[in-house]
Recover the amino acids of this structure.
C-alpha cells in the first residue's frame, strides 16, 4: 500500500545542500506492522512526512494505494490525509488554545460525523485521559499531550497509522498500553502501522524493521539487516 | 543543595482541584547524580519546574543552597536561574526564529562573556551538531532540537543541571553520548544532576532514584524503594 521508489529529499541552505534522504526505496504491505529505526538526524521524520503526504520528494516516486501522490493537487492531498491517514507527530502539533476533547474531535468535522464529542471522549478514555478532557495542552504533562496526539490520529479510523516516536514521553506501562491499542487495531481491523521508534523493545513488536542511516534505507527480513 | 519540604502544588480548574504534587519531601546533595522516575502525569515536570525556580509551590518550602526560594522576587529568581541552573525542558523551548548557535549563545549575554559564539559552537560540537550551527529549529530533527536544548543548558557552566527527559528523542548511541557528558561534568566539576527519565537504563546510571507516583515522592536507597 505504501510504495516509496528511489526517493531523494534535498534541502538547499544558501550554497550548502542537506541530503535528508538519498535514493530511498521501501514498501509496506496492507495490514503490515513496520518499525523504522535509525540514529537521530538520519531522515526518519522526513520519510514519514513524505509517506503522510505532508511533503514532496525532490526526486523519486511515492505511490499510496497505487496512486502517484506527486500528481495530486493540494485539495486531493488534504482529502487523502483526512480519509486514509492518521499521523502522530514527533512534536505532537496540538492546537495551543483548544481543550483535549476538541483536539480529538476536530478531524471528524470533515466526515460530518454527528457524534464527534462522544467519539473523542471514547478515544481519550482508551489512552487513559478520561479525566483530562477539558485541559489545554499547557495544562497537560508531556506524555499526556503525546496521548492526545495518539487519540486524535486514531479517532477518524484511518487505514494507515503513521506514528513518529509515539512513546518517547511515556513510561513503560503507558507505552505498553498504547502499543496494545495499535496491535489490536492492526490485528482486528487490518490497520497498516508504520512506527518510528528509538526503543528496541518497541521495534521488536513489529513484523519487520526498516533501518534508516544517513538518509538511506536498509530493509531487513524480520529484524535482521539483509 | 536542593531541599524540597512538604511541597504541594494544586491547580484550580473551575470547581475541580488537580493535585499535581501532594506533600512532597526530597533532598539532593551537592554533586549528586539523581534520577526521577514515575508514570506519565505523576508530577515529575511540576517538581522540576519548582526546583528550577520557574514555578512556586501552593504549600511547603523549597531551599536552594540554603536560600528560601519562596522569599525571592522575580529579579532574584531570574538571577538564580541564570547563574546556578541549567534546564533542559521536556519540550525543548527553543526560539522559533533563532539559529542553533544563537540559541546556545543567548544565555551567555547576562554574564557579559566576550566569546559567546565560540563557547556556543564548542557546546554544539560536543553534542554532535557542529554541522547544524545555522539551522532553525524547524530545520532540525527532533533529536537535534533536543541536543540544542542540552547544549544551551550546559553552556553557562551551571552548578545544577535539571534535565527533563533529555534522551526521549535520541537513539541509544546519541543518548549514551549525552549521558557521558553529564557524568563527566558530574565527576570532574561536581555538577549536581537531576534527570527525569522514562528509561530504566538511564536511571540505572544515577547514584540514586526518586520515584514519583500520583503526586507523591518515594525516596529510595540506591535504586530500591524504601
Ligand atoms: N527544513 C530543513 N532544512 C534543512 N535541513 C533539514 C530540514 N529538515 C530536516 N533537516 C535535516 O535533515 C536531516 C533529517 O531530519 P529528520 O527530521 O528526518 O531526522 P530523524 O531521523 O527524524 O531524527 P530524530 O530521530 O532526531 O527525530 C537532519 O540532519 C536535519 O538537520
Ligand atoms: N496548568 C495545569 N493545570 C491543570 N493541571 C495541570 C497543569 N499542569 C499540569 N497539570 C496536571 O498535573 C499532573 C502532573 O503533570 P506533570 O507535567 O508534572 O507530569 P509528568 O510526571 O511530568 O508526566 P510526563 O511523564 O507525561 O511528562 C498531570 O496530571 C497534569 O494533567
Ligand atoms: Mg524525527
Ligand atoms: Mg513531564
Amino acid at each position: 500500500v505504501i510504495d516509496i521508489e528511489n526517493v531523494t529529499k534535498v534541502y538547499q541552505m544558501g550554497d550548502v545542500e542537506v541530503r535528508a534522504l538519498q535514493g530511498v526505496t521501501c514498501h509496506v504491505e496492507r495490514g503490515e506492522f513496520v518499525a523504522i529505526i535509525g540514529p537521530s538526524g538520519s531522515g526518519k521524520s522526513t520519510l514519514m512526512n513524505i509517506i503522510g503526504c505532508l511533503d514532496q520528494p525532490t526526486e523519486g516516486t511515492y505511490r499510496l494505494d497505487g496512486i502517484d501522490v506527486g500528481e495530486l493537487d493540494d485539495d486531493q492531498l488534504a482529502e487523502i490525509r483526512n480519509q486514509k491517514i492518521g499521523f502522530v507527530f514527533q512534536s505532537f502539533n496540538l492546537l495551543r488554545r483548544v481543550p483535549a476533547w476538541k483536539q480529538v474531535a476536530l478531524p471528524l468535522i470533515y466526515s460530518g460525523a454527528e457524534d464527534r464529542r462522544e467519539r473523542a471522549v471514547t478515544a481519550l478514555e482508551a489512552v487513559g485521559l478520561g479525566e483530562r478532557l477539558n485541559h489545554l495542552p499547557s495544562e497537560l504533562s508531556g506524555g499526556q499531550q503525546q496521548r492526545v496526539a495518539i487519540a486524535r490520529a486514531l479517532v477518524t479510523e484511518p487505514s494507515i497509522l503513521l506514528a513518529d516516536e509515539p512513546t518517547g514521553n511515556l513510561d513503560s506501562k503507558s507505552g505498553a498500553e498504547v502499543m496494545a491499542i495499535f496491535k489490536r487495531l492492526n490485528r482486528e481491523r487490518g490497520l497498516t502501522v508504520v512506527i518510528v521508534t528509538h526503543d528496541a523493545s518497541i521495534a521488536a513488536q513489529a513484523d519487520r524493521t526498516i533501518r534508516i542511516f544517513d538518509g538511506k534505507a536498509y530493509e531487513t527480513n524480520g529484524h535482521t539487516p539483509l
